[in-house]
From TrEMBL:
Name of this chain's protein: Sensor domain-containing phosphodiesterase
UniProt keyword Transferase present: no
Residue ranges annotated for the GGDEF domain, each copy included: 446-573
Highest taxon listed in the record's lineage: Bacteria
SUPFAM superfamilies assigned to the protein according to its UniProt record, in alphabetical order: EAL domain-like (SSF141868), Nucleotide cyclase (SSF55073)
Organism: Clostridium gelidum
Coiled coil: 395-422
Domain EAL positions: 584-822
Length: 822
């Protein structure tokens, strides 16, 4: 192949050039036209003359923002590049249909790409979204190199056009495919702006207009880093300091073109909300060094013709240095190109839209041919000072270090997110998936069969043997269930302390029921060992079938089974299980009425200093006063309030009324919180508001239930840190139940541990309870945490507690909860 390049003047001059070079004798001819004259009549005349002189040629062209020939840059000229091929066939296409830019790319790929297509050269109107267009091509074939770019113009009064031998069009796309088994294609690009600073996010954008970055008005954001104002020529500043957008883990430059509306900025291509950006920095010397590196690579590639598709913003930024950039190819007549409004290039099998980039396409039908490139011309010119080079190196090195830091941080965040997600969906004790995961899976319709497995009287095991033994039994049972499920392609979960679940979505209902009955028989006959002891358990199983409300129905069946002393129950509509529902409805109304009539009140139970024997603190406990003035324990209404969606209102009432009392007492008052209170933004905001207004917020203690699994939630740590700013304290309630993690106590910065009543009530006669308590107290003393014994009901227990060096006691031995603090 060979390329002939000529500036168009008129028909006669063109005719003479074609005749003198015997171009008409070739069959496969591609003509590229780079027109710095944006007048349709002129371009149509050029096409007409070309077809007249070379009837067999295929034509593709574009208006340009500058033309490249013989190492020189021209403007307002028309450059004709004629490439003749011996072994390559050529197909062109012009698309002006009203279809999406993505579909334009799809259409180009479908019509032009064949098994032997090695490259596509394409020009598109600047109104086209270049990346969407290339994405369309990539969706069909992302390996074929696409070169070219978006059409430009030299004069503001000119129009932008793209064209083939079949016509001249606006808002269109043209492309040519080069097909050959013997065509060698190499493409390279030179950018060499570097990203600096941290990554930011586009938070509001429309088309090419960026409205906000990191929720800051875009113009304010840009001016914050690049000190400028509306009186400065933003085009050059925006080219030197472009926005660099993260695309396929690469940063591509987008120059800032102008400021609008005192808030928004316009860049050279469309950008989407959520895209990541960094500020870019361009240094003349380093940009030219990058070009030299590209030329060095091109010298080693087969090459008979070289085409440059470079960016108009790059030319405007480089100014007189733009000529220096293309100087190394000035001695080769087979080199031509033009300046675009955005360049196409293929990197790592992905065609992408670039800006401020010089892209190069080298073609050859002879593997031994080489393009003449004199890279030494770059070295003969000194474009920079030592200070410039030092500054660039400083910015580049620190920028790379920051980028590596950001990448490591992203990895850590990803790892932590995955870890937290795993914790949220995994039971700590058994490593089975937990209730959260079961509810999620059921909500997504993954299963149509569910059995709930409940251990009968499991609290008796904990009370008799201690929690450690209870945990051993739970682990062993979970392993048994898990192995059985693996064998039968079921999935298993631990729903809560002594309840498991098994699900299926494959087999027949009858087979599932039969296999679950067999599992129940295995469990009920299994002997669990702990040291020399043998422990047997009995489980109740409740099955629900179908896709609708599986968990709720299984719970109803379990409730029915327990109430009627059955060990196996399948949910059926005709079961008499609605008495509980009626009861819930009645209690829901009672709660609503009590809220409306201001009958939800705090009662206060004193907490005694064991060393001094005096009352220093008390706990606020919720009570309902019924229509007849009777005091109702939360046992009857608190769980129902959660299911009825009324629990938050009760919490708000308790906070409001307890803080009122707090300002009129010298006692420290404890307020109970559940995890759902802590993660509620409304409740947290109310707590902070109350702490800010409280006369002495140091008298407030928030009790968090230990059995809620709080070690899994960052929200708890954040909440504690926030309330401690005001001097408030934290107590862990019911400590010692279930799985007590001493490790997270060190992380949560708690002030008190309240030892659970199930341990305290037997401490005077149960050696294991005494040992557990000693461990808790010893650990708490080491951490400087004070201990409180709950449910102290008699003198013997109180004396034992004092012997064990527990700091405080609470229980009916001292006082029942009362309406007023005494």
């Amino acid at each position: 192949m060979k390329t002939y390049n000529v500036k168009y003047k008129d028909y006669d001059t063109l005719s003479k050039y074609i005749s003198n070079n015997y171009i008409i004798k070739y069959n496969n001819i591609l003509v590229q036209v780079f027109s710095g004259i944006g007048k349709k009549e002129f371009i149509e005349e050029v096409i007409k003359n070309l077809i007249s002189l070379i009837p067999q040629c295929k034509i593709i062209g574009s208006t340009s923002a500058g033309e490249i020939l013989n190492g020189k840059i021209f403007e307002n000229e028309c450059l004709i590049s004629i490439s003749v091929f011996a072994k390559t066939t050529i197909k062109t296409i012009l698309i002006k249909d009203k279809m999406s830019d993505f579909n334009k790319g799809v259409e180009v790929a479908r019509q032009l790409i064949s098994l032997d297509t090695k490259a596509i050269i394409s020009f598109a109107d600047a109104s086209i979204d270049g990346q969407d267009f290339l994405n369309g091509i990539n969706s069909i074939n992302n390996k074929v190199v696409v070169s070219g770019g978006l059409a430009g113009k030299s004069k503001s009064i000119d129009e932008i056009y793209v064209f083939t031998e079949n016509g001249v069009e606006k808002d269109a796309v043209v492309a040519v495919a080069l097909e050959s088994k013997d065509l060698y294609v190499n493409n390279e690009s030179s950018f060499n702006w570097i990203p600096i600073g941290r990554e930011h996010e586009i938070t509001e954008a429309e088309g090419k207009v960026i409205k906000s970055i990191d929720n800051i008005p875009a113009q304010e954001f840009y001016s914050k880093y690049i000190v400028t104002n509306n009186n400065e020529p933003i085009e050059r500043i925006g080219a030197k300091f472009p926005l660099m957008i993260k695309k396929n883990n690469r940063y591509v430059g987008r120059p800032v073109l102008k400021f609008i509306n005192d808030e928004e900025i316009t860049i050279s291509s469309k950008i989407d909300i959520g895209e990541k950006i960094r500020i870019g920095y361009g240094d003349l010397s380093e940009i030219l060094k990058g070009s030299r590196d590209v030329y060095d690579k091109m010298k080693k590639c087969p090459g008979e013709s070289l085409f440059i598709y470079s960016c108009d913003s790059r030319k405007n930024f480089l100014k007189e240095m733009a000529t220096k950039e293309i100087a190394p190819i000035s001695g080769n007549s087979s080199v031509s190109g033009f300046y675009t409004y955005g360049e196409f290039n293929n990197v790592n099998n992905e065609n992408m839209l670039y800006a401020e980039t010089m892209t190069i396409l080298v073609l050859s039908e002879d593997m031994n041919a080489r393009i003449k490139i004199d890279t030494e011309l770059n070295d003969k010119c000194q474009y920079y000072s030592d200070e410039d080079s030092t500054l660039y190196n400083l910015i580049k090195t620190t920028g790379e270090e920051l980028n590596q830091l950001n990448l490591k941080l992203e990895e850590k965040i990803k790892e932590k997110t995955e870890e937290l997600e795993k914790q949220y969906y995994t039971d700590n004790l058994t490593n089975l998936e937990n209730r959260n995961k079961l509810i999620l899976d059921l909500s997504q319709g993954k299963y149509d069969k569910l059995v709930i497995i409940d251990i009968k009287s499991f609290n008796d095991i904990n009370d008799f043997y201690g929690n450690t033994v209870g945990d051993v039994v739970l682990k062993a049972l979970s392993k048994l269930i898990s192995l059985y499920c693996d064998k039968n392609n079921f999935n298993s979960y631990r729903v809560n302390s002594d309840i498991f679940a098994v699900v299926d979505n494959v087999g027949l209902k009858e087979e599932f029921i039969e296999k679950i009955r067999f599992l129940q028989n295995v469990i009920n006959n299994q002997c669990f060992f702990y040291k020399d002891g043998k422990i047997y358990i009995t489980v109740t199983m409740a099955i629900a079938l179908g896709k609708e409300s599986l968990f709720e129905r299984a719970e109803m069946a379990l409730h029915y089974a327990k109430k009627n002393k059955k060990l196996f129950q399948i949910y059926k509509e005709e079961l008499d299980i609605y008495e509980g529902i009626k009861k819930n409805i009645i209690w829901t109304k009672k709660i609503k009425d009590a809220i409306a009539e201001n009958r939800i009140v705090p009662f206060f139970q004193p907490i005694v200093n064991n060393r001094l024997g005096t009352v220093e603190k008390c706990e606020a406990l919720i009570r309902m006063i019924d229509e007849n003035g009777e005091i109702i324990s939360p046992y009857f209404f608190l769980d129902i309030s959660k299911k009825a969606g009324l629990y938050k209102e009760l919490t708000i009432i308790m906070l409001e009324k307890t803080f009122e009392v707090l300002d009129n007492t010298d006692y420290e008052i404890s307020i109970n919180l559940l995890l759902q209170d802590i993660i509620s933004s409304e409740i947290r905001a109310l707590i902070i508001q109350k702490l800010k207004k409280a006369k002495n917020p140091k008298k407030v203690v928030f009790e968090i239930v230990e059995s809620e699994g709080i070690e899994n939630f960052n929200e708890v740590t954040e909440f504690i840190q926030e309330i401690k700013k005001y001097g408030a304290k934290i107590a862990i309630d019911d400590f010692g139940t279930g799985y007590s993690n001493f490790n997270y106590l060190m992380k949560l910065d708690v002030d008190y541990i309240k030892i659970d009543g199930s341990i305290i009530k037997n401490i005077h006669k149960d050696k294991s309870a005494e040992m557990v308590t000693k461990t808790i107290v010893l650990f708490a003393k080491e951490l400087g945490i004070e201990t409180i014994a709950e449910f102290v009901s008699e003198e013997e227990i109180y004396n034992k507690i004092k012997d064990l060096n527990i700091d405080y006691s609470q229980g009916y031995y001292f006082s029942e909860p009362k309406e007023n603090i005494e």
